[in-house]
Specification:
Order of helices and strands: EHEHEH
Number of helices: 3
Shape: flat
Structural class: alpha/beta
Strand content: 5-15%
Number of strands: 3
Bound molecules: nicotinamide-adenine-dinucleotide
Helix content: 40-55%
Radius of gyration: 16 Å
Strand order of the largest sheet: 1-2-3
Distance between the termini: 36 Å
């Protein structure tokens, strides 16, 4: 996850991480950043964009924790107790 990913530094960081084979979630409120900075990344299969102010209530974190819990319990529950 790159916060401020649509900014000057963030957009270059997103591009570099994608080049290295990482998946990238770019989070930006477009206060100063622009879609133009990341336009070249939109077609990359590993790139996702979330328009969100990181100082606001953590909707993303809440959803991520729910997903994590589902995944963890989904794997743990079917396993036999040892
Ligand atoms: N061509 C150039 O050389 C060039 C171009 C632009 C900037 N600069 C320089 O780069 C430096 C600034 O670059 P930067 O990348 O640090 O700044 P930036 O403003 O480009 O990037 C910050 C990013 O964070 C985002 N952001 C800010 N608050 C946020 C929040 N609460 N939630 C989500 N996103 C948020 C902004 O929308 C922006 O996309 C300055 O020194 C500037 O002079 C140089």
């Amino acid at each position: 996850m790159v916060t401020g990913g649509a900014g000057f530094i963030g957009s270059h960081l997103c591009a570099r991480l994608l080049e290295q084979g990482h998946d990238v979630l770019c989070v930006d409120n477009f206060g100063t950043g622009t879609r133009a900075n990341i336009a070249a990344l939109f077609d990359h299969p590993g790139f996702e964009l979330l328009r969100h102010d990181v100082t606001m209530p953590p909707i993303l974190l809440k959803n991520s924790l729910r997903a994590l819990k589902s995944t963890f319990l989904g794997v743990l529950r079917p396993l036999p107790q040892s």
